[in-house]
Amino acid sequence: MLNNLEALISLHKFGSMNKAALDLRLSQSAISKRISNLENFYQKKLIEKSGRKSVLTIEGLALIKQSEPLITKLYSLLEETKPSIKKYSIGVSESILSTWGPKILLPIFESLGLEVQLHTHRSPKIIERLISSKYDLGICAGNFSTKQYSLISDHLLKEEMVLAGQSKALNSPILCIEKTSQTWKNIKPKLSTNPKNTLYHSNFRELESFMPIAQIVKNSDQCGLIPIGVAKELLPTHQYKSLRPKLYRDIQLIYQKSKLQESIFTDLISELKKFKY
User: Which CATH architecture has domain 160-246?
Assistant: First the structure.
């Protein structure tokens, strides 16, 4: 019924079926049908032709006078009570956003009614933008203290690091993420302090990103150390395997403490922590 009344109001405002159709982004036949439905409902003639224009009858004008203020008030009320969508800017490590990140993040954002702008950077850049309040949340690889920046570093999960490539290539340098990265700083102590680790005696050759390491390994006889998320995304299962003992990198949620005053943000953190890799 509201749609039908809107068609009549638009016709009265613009004076022609064509202009009313353009206003409501409908066809002229749809406008005509809606008004015809009104006339059938009220059992009254509501419009009549006046040259090339369509004008309202006395009954049509009376209906407009009664209904237009009510419709305006109704739409205003609906707009006021419409739930607002919270907007957040979130920085995510590249190897996460390129693999398993979107699969878990996007459904959570949608379920909470969040409008999110995703960005991908190295962890230090994400932290820099969290400090300056350009980002609301960081999802970063590595395990590092952020107390000096007045940020909360909240453990999310541990992601396994796997050995990708030919086992016969173990005597050659192993491709790895650059040693200035947070992931390397996180896993290096575990590699160098346990003689039982598969890669304890290995040499490493650095690259700037896990994605090209996986592609090189896939198309050559070299080995690489990569997160299992990257391996699952780019490699067949026979091209990667777990280390002995297994090796993990930490994934952290990083944010300003003040964000916990927002109930929707605490809901977001809670939902993220439910994820099990």
Answer: 3-Layer(aba) Sandwich (3.40)
pTM for the structure as a whole: 0.67
Measured in degrees and rounded to the nearest 5, phi and psi for residue 215 equal -70, -40
- The CA distance from 200 to 203, in Å, is 9
Which pLDDT score is estimated for 101?
94
Q: Given this chain, do its domains 86-158+252-273 and 160-246 carry the same CATH topology?
A: yes
Q: List CB contacts of 46: < 8 A, sequence separation 6 or more.
A: 8, 35, 38, 39, 56, 57, 59, 60, 63
Q: Which pLDDT score is estimated for 80? A: 61
Domain ranges of the chain: 2-81, 86-158+252-273, 160-246
* Low-confidence residues of the chain: pLDDT under 70: 78-85, 167-170, 277
Which residues, 6 or more positions from 113, have their beta carbon under 8 angstroms from its beta carbon?
A: 83, 85, 86
- Looking at residue 85, what is its pLDDT? 60
In the block, tokens 């707009």 appear at: 79
Architecture of domain 2-81: Orthogonal Bundle (1.10)
Q: What's the topology of domain 86-158+252-273?
A: D-Maltodextrin-Binding Protein; domain 2 (3.40.190)
What pLDDT shows up at residue 150?
Answer: 81
